[in-house]
């Protein structure tokens, strides 16, 4: 049984679904669509939480919507390897018993996040990659798309530009157009979950795996501390163990989630001169949203409030349809 035991007395948390659509140099002309994409995903996740009461459903549904959206670097619209292919990483985790599923080098499926969940739910394993993972997906009825179906014109154009650009490290463009996606959620009983899905870094070598599918780096969830999804330079996020560090500060360092998120990302950027962002919910339901990159699109829904932002310090609030308690 995944969910924490929860009777009506224990329902003390405000159900929330918080998503991001990637850290980096989001171009001005993409700001409106990125915001729309994350707002829709947050609402979709919140709707799933209301309908099924499952934080796993909430984060999976939110991420699935963004995987379908070519605006983001996940599923359809993923960035391309140096050889022009899509290779995706994803992970999902539930904070009650620390169950998790991770997948790397996923190809030709729209929803790597659902494959990660399937690995969690239906195999004795936690992490699968490449050929074996794709055979599992096919055997379990995933729609295997024709080769190249996830490759967009935009991704091809960006790879071309990347290959001809001699200075690939400038202006946050090192890893191409931003757009890794992630979600974290908490239910009324304090169960948390996290999910992250990505096409990785543009122009990466085939076989490269980033932080998004690595627990403690790009994704983590523990009901005793909180849930995190990170985005940014994966090699650095893994080296700095970003998700674990943030949660440790919350659990043992007496910091709020916002303080811990800011502290760890600032430290990472200071030490490595690479940028990242993260969204987080702690075990009390407090949020952390921060990035050291130029921008990061994010949104969350809590009851009838839909918050969103892209630039530092921004928090636009809209009132959406009255939401009943979860
Ligand atoms: N963290 C992702 C990776 O390195 C990329 C990103 O978040 O933009 O694969």
UniProtKB/TrEMBL annotation:
GO terms for biological process: L-asparagine catabolic process via L-aspartate; proteolysis. The keyword Protease applies. CDD domains: ASRGL1_like. It holds the Pfam family Asparaginase_2. The record marks 179-180 as: Cleavage. Has both L-asparaginase and beta-aspartyl peptidase activity. Does not have aspartylglucosaminidase activity and is inactive toward GlcNAc-L-Asn. Likewise, has no activity toward glutamine. Belongs to the Ntn-hydrolase family. This is GH11081.
